[in-house]
Specification:
Blueprint: E1 7-21, E2 24-27, E3 38-49, E4 53-57, H1 64-71, E5 79-84, E6 87-88, H2 93-97, E7 100-103, H3 115-125, H4 130-143, H5 160-173, E8 178-182, H6 190-206, E9 210-215, H7 218-224, E10 227-232, E11 235-240, H8 242-246, H9 259-267
Parallel strand pairs: 4-9, 4-10, 7-8, 8-9
Antiparallel strand pairs: 1-2, 1-3, 1-5, 5-6, 10-11
Helix pairs in contact: 3-4, 3-5, 4-5
Length: 276
């Protein structure tokens, strides 16, 4: 007899609005002087089970990063509820922060310091014992493809791909129960991308971590995710396993449908990555 898995993350009718001031977007308020709000996340509902890798796919501007920031308590959603293992992200912010960590495409560091120094500083903030942290830093970074000597040279001398690996190591160092990976491989060279993807697979298979992954990469989502939500203009337009999504689309010239075919079929848009 199967048992129902624990719910790690639940979003119910979540909406987030902004208003434009010049070329910038600011959180929407009811006294926004008549400005029409931009709805970045529009009535989004989904659940993520413990131990699952859950993908959120969509083009730039679809609301992926805004949704992740709401989950991570960095933005306050305007409507609906978000809970992390039963903790409401608005009412129980500190409890939620102890359970999660986030990696984004714009990860920041003390650039004059080494990866080891940056990660030991982060570990201290989370109460990780220094000797244990040092051992874990070396283990995780070498697993991600950094040479030992790279761990002890300034971050400013490292490529963006290497810095992104340090960001992933920093997030996992605290052993979060829910790991939010917001486009973690965007802009990486093919080798770095494969190393990061292999590490995500290892987290999925060997550690008690639940992962929410946003990405532009359809092959990445197909390989890593147990289920996928496709986001378009802030709304979820489809949610299923990768195989289930592809089964909705007829074969293309005799070839098996891809997740990109699914996206184009459901939204009428080409899914392309726009590098900044």
């Amino acid at each position: 007899m199967s048992t129902q898995r624990e719910i790690a993350l639940e979003a119910i009718h979540v909406t987030k609005r902004f208003v434009r001031h010049g070329g910038l977007r600011w959180p929407w308020q009811r006294n926004a002087n008549g400005r029409k709000p931009v709805v970045a996340v529009n009535d989004v509902t989904f659940q993520v089970q413990r131990g699952e890798v859950f993908g959120v796919l969509g083009p730039n501007g679809s609301g992926k990063s805004t949704l992740v920031r709401c989950i991570a308590t960095l933005l306050l959603h305007d409507e609906g509820t978000i809970t992390i293992f039963g903790h409401d992200v608005l009412r129980e912010e500190m409890a939620v922060k102890r359970l999660i960590n986030r990696v984004s495409v714009e990860a920041s560091f003390f650039k004059k310091l080494t990866p080891m120094e940056n990660l030991l500083y982060g570990a201290r903030l989370y109460g990780v014992e220094p000797r244990q942290a040092r051992r874990q830093v070396i283990e995780i970074l070498t697993r991600l493809g950094l040479k030992r000597e790279d761990i002890f040279r300034p971050m400013e001398e490292m490529s963006r791909g290497m810095q992104q690996k340090v960001a992933i190591a920093r997030a996992f160092l605290t052993q979060p129960i829910l790991l939010l990976l917001d486009e973690p491989t965007t802009g990486l060279d093919p080798r770095s991308k494969r190393e990061v993807q292999a590490f995500v697979e290892e987290l999925r298979d060997n550690h008690d971590a639940t992962i929410l992954l946003t990405t532009h990469d359809m092959q990445e989502a197909d390989a890593l995710c147990d289920r996928v939500a496709i986001l378009d203009d802030g709304r979820i337009v489809a949610l299923d396993t990768p195989a289930g999504l592809k089964a909705r689309v007829s074969r293309n010239n005799g070839h098996e449908a891809t997740l990109e075919d699914v996206f184009m079929e459901l939204t009428g848009k080409a899914l392309r990555r726009e590098e900044e």
